[in-house]
Amino acid sequence: EELGSGVSVFLNALKIELGSVEMRVSKIERVDGKIRFTVQTPDSSKQHSVEKTDNLSTISWGPVLNVTSTVLTPTSVQLEFTQPVDSMQFYKVGRAP
What we know:
- The structure is a single chain.
- This protein has strands at 10-11, 16-18, 21-31, 34-40, 48-53, 62-63, 68-73, 76-82, 90-95.
- The protein is globular, with a radius of gyration of 13 Å.
- The protein is mostly beta strands.
- Strand 2 (16-18) and strand 3 form a beta hairpin.
- The termini are far apart.
- The protein has no helices and 9 strands.
- The strands form 2 sheets. Strands 2-3-4-8-7 form a 5-stranded antiparallel sheet, with no helix packed on it.
């Protein structure tokens, strides 16, 4: 999704299945130099995380540091982190079992 100012965010737009549990990123925003994902999840009380990679040819996922999590409802959470500088990143969202 294009967020303006030459910043693009690539996110796993497919449904993420954890057993029979699905999560979906419903909104992506850029707010005050941060990237914000709104995630629909079966249980917003569980810990959620964001991982990144800069290459889809030889994928090597690593954690995004300093992700702030805000519970919106029992089934939605916002994940926010500092926008990367001068590098393309691909992201995926996970949830603790």
